[in-house]
Amino acid sequence: MAHARRDNARLLARVRRMQGQVEALARLLREQRECNDVLQQIAAVRGAATGLMADVLEEHLKEHLSAPSHSAGQRERDLSELAHIVKRYLK
Asked: What's the pTM value of the predicted model, to 2 decimals?
């Protein structure tokens, strides 16, 4: 996954922010905070995960599925695999 290596620092920074959001969620639950606070933090975590998925997905599409160097058969296999991953993510 070439794009992950190229953008590794940026992706890792996003993951660290997500870790902070998950830790904040755990803290809210431990402290038995108001439901609205917990729900807001869950929404933040989900939004961060969705944003990360969108960034990696966009780069993957550019890097792998539109590459003229890949055969049609390889692109078809990559597309099938990617569709499976996206379906799992959307469940």
From this structure: 0.80
